[in-house]
Amino acid sequence: MEDAMKEGVSLLTTYGLKVVGAILILIVGKMVANWVQKRVAAWLSRSGKFDATLQGFLSNIARYVVLIATFLAVLGQFGIETTSLIAVLGAASLAIGLALQGTLSNVAAGVMLLVFRPFKAGDFVETAGIAGSVKSITLFITELATPDNVQILVPNSQVWGSIVKNFSHHTTRRVDLVMGIDYGDDIDKAQSVVQQVVQADSRVMADPAPMVVVGNLGESSVDLTIRVWCQAGDYWPVKFDLTKTLKQRFDAEKLSIPFPQRTIHMVKAE
Description:
Layout: H1 2-47, H2 52-77, H3 82-99, H4 101-116, E1 124-127, E2 130-137, E3 141-145, E4 151-155, H5 156-160, E5 164-166, E6 172-181, H6 187-200, E7 211-217, E8 222-231, H7 235-252
Antiparallel strand pairs: 1-2, 1-5, 2-3, 3-4, 6-8, 7-8
């Protein structure tokens, strides 16, 4: 009985201290992990270069790294060989990574989108063959809304792997119009009318100066190419209003916009 008590005291002394040490390591490790998470989040926030979603993602990664190190330290406290365990975890991570290859590629692409910011929420973009306003960017998908307000969810890997046209990136945009006049009309008069209409629109910028030139001699019309600059938010209103006003002014000035014409020569069969 005395021997058993001595053995129990010995085990309690040996492993009790290890248990206490492990508990202390867990407590300190958790405190350090939370501190690291907050510090990383604060640093990312101050930098101003990282999206809020990415800030949370990276700060959580930092926290889990500390927690994993804490877990390995606890195992080492009990004399467990961690080298082989790390190898097993590495192999398991590789297997999981291969199984979730598509998902992880979306996460990686999401991180790249949030870091480099080719566009932001509210921008009108065309990517992966889809055009729409950006509603949100997460680690897995980018949400777009089409002009007719249809929700489109695009995997981030497709967005990052394709060309992105951001129509909202610059503050100004150029409006291009083509107006055709009859070959018998006065070209100089038509250009003067166009200039008057363009200059009367306060949304059209004076610099760069509007351009009105003969852009093409078509099959049935002389095509005037009109290029004006405006604020990006005024693009569609300017385009629509100028098209309507030019048509009305051409009618008032007796400048015709000809329909497509064909000259057919009839040959009488002998």
